[in-house]
Amino acid sequence: MSEDSEKEDYSDRTISDEDESDEDTFMKFVNEDIHQCALLTADSISDPFFPGTTQILLEYQLGRWVPRLREPRDLYGVSSSGPLSPTRWPYHCEVIDEKIEHIDWTPLNPEPMYIPTGLEMEPLYANSKEETVVYLAEDAYKEPCFVYSRVGGNRTPLKQPVDNCDDTLMFEARFESGNLQKVVKVAEYEYQLTVRPDLFTNKHTQWYYFQVTNTQAGIVYRFTIINFTKPASLYNRGMRPLFYSEKEASAHNIGWQRIGDQIKYYRNNQGQDRHHHFSLTWTFQFPHSKDTCYFAHCYPYTYTNLQEYLSGINNDPVRSKFCKIRVLCHTIARNMVYILTITTPLKNSESRKRKAVILTARVHPGETNSSWIMKGFLDYILGNSSDAKLLRDTFVFKVVPMLNPDGVIVGNYRCSLAGRDLNRNYTSLLKESFPSVWYTRNMIRRLMEKREVILYCDLHGHSKKENIFMYGCDGSDRCKALYLQQRIFPLMLSKNCPDKFSFSSCKFNIQKSKEGTGRVVMWKMGIRNSFTMEATFCGSTLGNKRGTHFNTKDLESMGYHFCDSLLDYCDPDRTKYYQCLRELEEMEKHINLEKVIDDSDTSLKEITLDLETSSHASDSSESNDSQTDLLKLNSQIKTKKIQLKTKKERNSTIARHQNIREEEQEVCDKGHLVQRHKESVSDVTDTRPSISDDCIFDYFRRQLPNQAERSLESSLLSPPTDDRTQAHATFD
């Protein structure tokens, strides 16, 4: 790798204030066309202008010394020469010595959702002195706020209220990402459970993950978690708890599976201060006696899992060439927040012309499904397929796979160790309180000074809606063309993944309570395509997967579909792009016509985009189904079935002549689009520079090159030898 390309890979990183100031000061002096003639360290020069440091290298060229920063050394924590960085816990958290591991496994058949019978019980428990407490974790309440951390937490001998009895289940959750506060045995085979709120808060009881031992096969056990706070839940829409058996894993290679009967989510009588709590109850028979089992809200993905994954990349001689792993910052507990730069290294300055794509995940630690989507994305983008290589050749990917490792480690659902939701604090200036989002915002700001960022996406999980969908930002008050443009990528994604991704569930608006989210902040910074991708904890209501749960492979597949849609969105052949644009305008026309017939003055935005709710879910929460008309309309709009062409097909003479004819037709169509959008231009004041519709469509026109330009553009965007694999997506 050349020095120019290495400087490009690492110059966006943000590690500390010292690094940031040094980099901003001295990178200004670096020449684009450096040819190294001599190399000295700054401390070897007696000139007082240069500080006495070995981190600045001086290159002598063209009669003068040019300073530059030394390239970063191997990252501690993922270096091939050392162990993984140990996890750090709040000092008072009790942690068992046992390392919890699970195998990866995908069910042979889709797992159906639970169908209520109407006969499910609603256990209500009154406090009684005769209760038998079998598990109690009070360490979380020893401090009112975070004080300091230590490696491995509190490893003093751990005690439990009840010793191992013949017929009593034993519970444990004092391991990484575990969450269980108290268990009471209320009957011979019935247990009342309480999950722990996020550390240093008194709320956010949603995530659970605990171990059960001393099991007996063939016995119907009942488990009831009594202190949930959300009135609505996917458990009342067919979602089942997850179960893992170590004996099943070792004997039959079976991992996490959906289980449970008599599943019910309901309001109970355990409320305090006039605030009601809600219970989840289910029954289950263990497959083996004397087994070690686990229950979880969603498929666990821990900080250790991430570190092991990154270590594998770092030790791979192929992937490590185009994936550079660095430390973005350290958390409050001094755990590392990693940032990945993924792009094909070049030996010239062409890399500066590449546009950037940014992905982040796990700002909410209990939304583990976002980590599985992130894993699928990384598996694909770091793979050896021709499409993955094309993406690496075309873009610079900046990836922060886990924004809140502290919360992940301690088993929080939503907050960091500051006791706050990080996804409401992207505007905060409190770097010490919210380091990961502060440094992420700063990294993106500096990146935007060097290159265009075409897309930002923050991955989340959603607790109240099925399917996978996106939240975007509303540009209708500025420019109708931008208003439609922001919907093109989600629409493409829904076409490429019709059985998982729901375009009708997507929302494009900004509530005041969401102005501190990553999605809104990045949009206001100037990133037009700024999204939150929400993945349900449950499953799908679409296509062939209707009525079944998502497993880890389903979630990972969204990483591939994201990449596939990105190729569609940026394809030099703009056929799909303009097809989606026309389809979106057709949706607007039909809905406006329906509302005119209904004698209503409600705009498209008010019709199709119902408000996101408060912070009870992820980026936004409960929403109604007012966009079902869009879904029906989408299925009624018939367009030509088109598939992506390979590089050879795109460069063939027949394809070029066909594209020329299509362009002539599209120019006519765009004339109609331009006229319609000119009529709806808005001059609302905004912090960003105003852009006219003519400018927007001039940009669109530039994406339709003539015959000679198309051949050149294809040669630049496609690999020199490999063909791009034919996309699985079809536009119906």
UniProtKB/TrEMBL annotation:
Keywords: Carboxypeptidase, Hydrolase, Metalloprotease, Protease. Signal peptide: none annotated. Residues 614-629 have a biased composition (Low complexity). Its main location: cytoplasm. The active site is at E534 (proton donor/acceptor). GO terms for molecular function: carboxypeptidase activity. It holds the Pfam family Pepdidase_M14_N. Residues 1-23, 612-631, 648-687, 710-732 are annotated as: Disordered. It is found in: Cytoplasm, Cytosol. Its cofactor is Zn(2+). It comes from the Eukaryota. CDD domains: M14_AGBL2-3_like (cd06907). PANTHER family: CYTOSOLIC CARBOXYPEPTIDASE, CYTOSOLIC CARBOXYPEPTIDASE 3. This is Cytosolic carboxypeptidase 3 isoform X7. It comes from Odocoileus virginianus (White-tailed deer). The lineage of its organism: Eukaryota, Metazoa, Chordata, Craniata, Vertebrata. The gene is AGBL3.
